[in-house]
Design goal:
Distance between the termini: 48 Å
Number of strands: 9
Radius of gyration: 19 Å
Helix content: 40-55%
Oligomer: single chain
CATH architecture of the largest domain: 3-Layer(aba) Sandwich
Structural class: alpha/beta
Shape: globular
Largest sheet: 6 strands, parallel
Strand order of the largest sheet: 1-4-3-2-5-6
Number of domains: 2
CATH class of the largest domain: Alpha Beta
CATH topology of the largest domain: Rossmann fold
CATH superfamily of the largest domain: HUPs
Order of helices and strands: EHEHEHHEHHHHEHEHHHEEE
Length: 275
Amino acid sequence: MKIFYSVEDFLQSRLHVKSFIPTMGNLHEGHLSLVRKAKDLSSNTCVSIYVNKAQFDKEDDFKSYPKTLEDDIKKLQNLNVDYLLIPEEPEIEKFSKPLIIKNEPTHLTKDLCGKYRKGHFLAVMDIVHRFFQIVRPENVFFGMKDYQQLMVIKELIKSQNYEVNLIESETIRSNEGLALSSRNKNLSEEQLQYASEIYKSLKYAKHLIKQGCEIDEINTKIYQYFEEFPIEVEYFSIRDLKTLQQLYDSDLIALIAVYIGKVRLIDNIIIESTP
């Protein structure tokens, strides 16, 4: 595996990257599943590790984000990744242009997670836009755990006319159903047990929809579900799968964000319409 710590060196190598997996490091099985999927599709796979400060709305959240670079490198080497890019912010800005959006897709950037994390998704769009300029991949891989982010990247590719194939990968979960996340490491053993209730609540919501319950009734029941646990629900919402609009006549997705202590976790579940 060739490791690049410099964007300039990366560009001078004139690589033809077929598959790209952008990450913020602290790699877990969710990230590694993306890498395996990319390797199965093609050679010339590139992973980036860059913790984008602009995505964090709280300084403490940025500072507490786990950094495990040495371990990350070993994991990627074991999977025979071709290239690893570990850039610094000044070089990213030097060798790429910022994103200019004429019409911000506010239904994606300022709703759900965007409502509570000001500027987060614009920062995501900007950094991916910059990496696309630097890496120039044929394919890019994102997991479905952060479904709203996935939709934002789709909008970025469409609005900027990027000839990049966005390949989705299903959420990887623990045996208890908890979606794998870099933030899980910040949970105590007791909190990890409570965290398994997140996915249980989503499955409960899916069951209620299949039973024909009204959306408002389901919302109430989900908030009530968490009253017996030390979990603060930031939001729970059921949306149209393709648009994330509040439309309920097709395939749906239930999305949730919670706090367990100071740790923020997100998850979702797809609810296919019954023929």
